Amino acid sequence: MAAGIIVLLTCALLFLMARPPICTCGHVDLWHGALDSGNSQHIADWYSLSHVIHGFIFYAGALALMRRQPLGPRFALAVLVESIWEILENSPIIIDRYRAATIALGYSGDSILNSMSDIGMMALGFLIAARAPVAVTVCLGLALELIALLAIRDNLTLNVLMLAWPIEAVKSWQSAV
Questions:
Q1: What is residue 161's DSSP assignment?
Q2: Would you call 38 helix, strand, or coil by DSSP?
Q3: Which of 8, 14, 94, 146 could form a disulfide with 19 if both were Cys (CB 3.0 to 4.6 A apart)?
């Protein structure tokens, strides 16, 4: 119940931040695989894979911090952390950072639909990590990183690297897609 309330509050806050509810193109795609202005506007795209990995990481973190707590409170913490990221990711400072430091030159933030889907993808990753053996979760995380790397020359690792410490050679390599 706490996780649901957090998601509803996040949705409301994104609305108050004037995020578009859906893609400004006027339609909704289940999957948007192109690297264009439709990224982060539809239900899922290549960056959805990184949100599944967030779930793996947040499960491990919540387990370490709250080992004696049941799954529910750990899940609520993970939803809270992902929701905070979705709010930050759609703030002018992070949008401008993406534009300046990464290949996302025309990035304008997420639609509310995409942010809600990103939280759902994290939840999926969290629940997979809660049920699967650690080795399976680690292998799946590595596979998702490699799939995104091969498909779009970007993934969670490179995204964090380029936001924190941009490397021009990496940006040039990514731009060659």
A1: H
A2: coil
A3: 14
Calculate mean pLDDT across residues 119-147. 98
pLDDT band for 101, please (50, 70, 90 cuts): confident
Residue 154: CB atoms within 10 Å: 21
> Reduced to 3 states, what is the DSSP secondary structure of residue 45?
strand
pLDDT at residue number 105:
65
CA gap 121, 74 in Å, rounded: 16
Half-sphere exposure of 136 (CA within 13 A, CB side): 8
For 134-157, how does the pLDDT look when each residue is reduced to its tens digit (9 = 90+)? 999 999 999 999 999 999 999 999
Tokens of 29: 């795609």
Question: Whole-angstrom Cα distance, residue 171 to residue 4?
Answer: 37
Reduced to 3 states, what is the DSSP secondary structure of residue 31? strand
Closest C-alpha to 129, from 116, 138, 121: 138
Radius of gyration of the chain (CA): 16
Q: How confident is the model at residue 5 (pLDDT cuts 50, 70, 90)?
A: very high
118, amino acid identity? D
- Residue 95 reports pLDDT greater than 80: yes
